[in-house]
From TrEMBL:
It comes from the Archaea. Transmembrane segments: none annotated. The lineage of its organism: Archaea, Methanobacteriati, Methanobacteriota, Stenosarchaea group, Halobacteria. This is Selenoprotein W-related protein. Keywords: Redox-active center. The keyword Coiled coil does not apply. The keyword Acetylation does not apply. Coiled coil: none annotated. Gene3D superfamilies: Glutaredoxin (3.40.30.10).
């Protein structure tokens, strides 16, 4: 099963975004994933990984919760 990690910048105040993404992923995939982990970071980081693969990086992608959830789906598989 899938592990999702959301690394977010604490000093930048990105906890709310990390929580929003976490909640959306859990609502969409429920028990089809093992874990959604919030990982503290700094220097403006906001990166989402699914099974250690980067699926969203705010440096390269536009922040969109729905798009992030869609980017996680291939890692969850057909069960979702």
């Amino acid at each position: 099963m899938t592990r999702v990690e959301i690394e977010y910048c604490v000093p930048c105040g990105m906890l709310n975004r990390a929580q929003d993404v976490s909640e959306a992923i859990l609502k969409q995939f429920g028990e089809s994933i093992d874990e959604v982990a919030l990982v503290t970071g700094e220097a403006g980081v906001f990166v989402v990984r699914a099974d250690d693969e980067v699926v969203f990086d705010k440096e390269e992608d536009e922040y969109d919760v729905d798009a992030i959830v869609r980017s996680v789906k291939p890692y969850v598989g057909a069960a979702a």
